[in-house]
Predict the structure.
Amino acid sequence: MSFFEMHDPEGSVRDCYAEVQRWIDETGVTGLHRRLEEAEAIFRRIGITFAVYGEGGDPERLIPFDLLPRIFSRLEWERLDRGIRQRAQALNAFLYDVYHRGEILRAGRIPQDLVYQNEAFRPEMIGFDPPGRVYSHIVGIDIVRTGPDRFEVLEDNCRTPSGVSYMLENREIMTRMFPDLFSRGRVTPVDNYPAQLLRTLKEVAPPACSGDPVVVLLTPGSLNSAYYEHSYLADLMGIELVEPVDLFVEDGRVWKKTTAGPKAVDVIYRRIDDDYLDPLAFRPDSLLGVPGLFHAYRSGGVTLCSAPGAGIADDKAIYVYVPEMIRFYLGEEPILANIPTWQCGTKDGLAYVLEHLSELVAKEVHGSGGYGMLIGPKSTAAEIAAYADRIRANPGGFIAQPTLDLSTVPTLGEAGVVRRHADFRPYCLVGKRMRLVAGGLTRVALTEGSLVVNSSQGGGVKDTWVLRD
Amino acid sequence: MLSRTADNLFWMARYLERAESTARLLTMGQRMAVLPGSAYRDEWRSVLRVTGCESFLKGTGPVTEADVVAILLLDPENAASIQACLVRARANGRSVRTKLTQDMWEALNMSWRHFEGCTVAEAVQELPVLIDWVKTRTAVFKGAMETGLMRHAGHDFIRIGGAIERAQMTLRLLDVKYYVLLPETDVVGGGRDHYQWTSVLHALSGSRAYHHVYGGVHTPAQIVDFLMVNRTFPRSVAFCVDQMRTHLARLAKEHGTRAACHETADELFALLKTGRNGVFIERGLHESVQHCLLLTNRLASEIADSYHF
């Protein structure tokens, strides 16, 4: 039986959920459903949408929103907070190390091949010191809960984690619709995130910057699935939302094309993959990108957030070693545990995984968004056999983990409150100092028993509260 | 302001204005079609001609209301159709989401899917309601802009785009209908011309305004004056040119320099100034209108050049 976050082991409502329980009782199921419809109408009107690649249909569908908040007590959050910061710090230390002396590899704690042969490793970055030695300025850490006192990290996102707009919008909608719930001031606000993000970005201005740094948000364009988020964040930070065609490089600096001619840019919060940043440095066939951008970056004319090559730290094969990084760089024990992971690239791992595939969750090392994974217990023998063939063909490309007993959170179902599995993604900001807003994005599987929470696979989102006592 | 942003705002405004103008044209078409002898005049065809959409017709017989509704309201492939204009206005707005207010965006975002799945038969039956809906949506958008949008350069580009589009619609309408306003048609005489003249005013929602300026008498010279050189009627060419010049002047101030587009706007202004009291008819209405169209097109492309679109 999974841990239901609303109840203690005896089945009575936990303190942190008491107020929400009262609210549910007062409003009633019909009342909640009516309010949910209102909320959806607001979302639709505002235009918060999420496109799902390769599924066809509605290109701008709404991400389902669940009305019932997910709640962390102050004590729970304090632990999460320390664990998240610890991890974000270690990941950045690792990035600096692998692009410099590679001490952790020399020390034999992480196999060299795993890093240097990795597609996510960018040799172009070797020897370069990004401002503040920060590579990943926004670290999104996916965390699941498997018991009252147990939080485990599912994966790290060091490149450009998305979803923070849902954290902000979900809270916005909840406060707009249910002001009473927030009137006692117990819920920690999250709306300072954009200001903190901007401060973080300004802290890593390049050497060439003089005066107040000019920050822009670089989006692939309005057809990108996260475009709403890009425009939303740019808006809240009061910075320009630019596309690659709006920028060019000259005299070692990056310029934006404006109606009054070129204007210099200091920091680029890019929401575009490494591959498409600069056709001269990375993919030459890319039609996106700003030619010369990478050179301007390396010569100190501009800062890219996150740094190219930051993806090596969130690679699924590297994930296994994050606890090792924490011990190596910080001399601390990890506060948040990793999930046991078998690497098919090792001989023992492969043998174990192939033998136990029907009990495991197998993933592609380079996959994301819940695509191309196999959930053993929910798959047919034929699906498992087919997946096993894929693993055999390229063992290094796969990892497997046990199916976890994920906690469930209260969710609004047809007939009342139901229990659904959820995960959690906080967003840790790293500049000259570290900042973490007390909250994050809770994603929830909307079908009973389902473990897949990805919005690309039909998962929903809900507001996340961190209570002050 | 990013050049691309200016470009998107400019075109967003143009498409929105075009949707509204087309809606007004459809009202005129409906009105004319119920008057005696409408089949003979093939009134719906002139609606298509004004929008440059005659080539979308399949058959050769008289044009029906259903033909026009299919082409000008619903056809997503036709850049002049209301449906396509709304979709494009929104796509342009979406690319520069941060330069619009929340209310403007919501107005834009609510319109774009309205006609999806609507059949021609349904649309014909519901036409007055649909036209009203389009006018309301654009009015809501403009209202939101009026009271909420910062008066930055983006606002100027929106206004200029709208003004150019509106002037062009008036000019095209005059160009298609110029023959009914020529003095020779006096010879034919009778009620028909009266209908024809008033239809032009109706298409621009100007028949009441006209009466306030000229009383109850319709003469071709006065109608042409009203639509070309009157500086108080918002759909007249002169009014639109005034708007363009006002906002171009603001842009010049903000950017610290004038450009070719400013000269062209002044040229248009000077041209209209000389055209009072039926002068355009004497010079040849068709030629005068064509010349104005040419200048507005040149203006639009010079704006793009000057501001690095």
Remarks:
- The longest helix of chain A spans residues 18-46.
